[in-house]
């Protein structure tokens, strides 16, 4: 039961004086974890797929997810009529251990990283989180969206991923149990470890 208006601006600043006294707000970093491995193995409410606009499957993590979910996932995706860059759509997980797959389409960056690409990548995280909220799901895992075939620079992408999740957790007061950054490459593991220490310092 969330009675708040959906159109309230991102920097709704009515929580200034509650921050210190609200016990729910003190351990937001406990909700975030870093996992290196195959996202299709996670038994969780939702995993995010770095899909392409067609939503009809592709290489990389998208291919892994479709293989592990079975052909029903492709049938479900056919009903969705594709997806625009920065947006997200949800399906069941079918044969996957996850309950749902949130398909989002990252920008094709080809090694570049301008403001527009950054906005689009941030929007992938925000759109996925919005679905998590509207479907009342409590746990989600993100792969490193756009940083494979789509060529978004890994470090910039990780900064966007971690800062967007942090912003969202603070804003929404963590209405979730767990958010997982699921990295696949050792290079991303290293980058994310550092970003998480910066954004979620242990004191
Ligand atoms: P994009 O097209 O958005 O760049 P890719 O699937 O090519 O998406 O790559 C996104 C990230 O997903 C890369 O870091 C890649 O190493 C990683 N990846 C590939 N397979 C898996 C998997 N099974 N689980 C988690 N991450 C994966």
TrEMBL record:
Q: Which residues form the Macro domain?
A: 19-200
Indicate, by first and last residue, each region the UniProt record lists as having compositional bias (Basic and acidic residues).
3-12
Q: What is this protein called?
A: MACRO domain-containing 2
Q: Which organism is it from?
A: Callorhinchus milii (Ghost shark)
Q: Which portion of the entire protein is included?
A: 117 to 319 of 457
